[in-house]
Design brief:
The chain has two helices and no strands. The protein has 59 residues and is mainly alpha-helical. It has one domain. Helix 1 runs antiparallel to helix 2. The longest helix has 30 residues. Keywords: Coiled coil.
Length: 59
């Protein structure tokens, strides 16, 4: 479960980074950057939850 969530968030981050690479509208860039920061925070939470589950013996 956690690994699937992590992969999904990682994919979203890659897509947002790709959008940033070609976006030239300042307002749209700010929106994408905000979404990217939020996705990076979700990935950190996902990674933390996965580590905690692994430490608790979950496979």
């Amino acid at each position: 479960m956690y690994q699937e969530d992590e992969m999904s968030v990682e994919q979203q981050i890659e897509e947002l980074r790709a959008e940033l690479s070609w976006c030239d509208d300042a307002g749209e860039r700010r929106q994408i950057e905000a979404e990217l920061r939020a996705a990076e925070k979700r990935l950190k939470r996902c990674n933390r939850a996965l580590r905690q589950a692994e430490q608790a013996g979950w496979q």
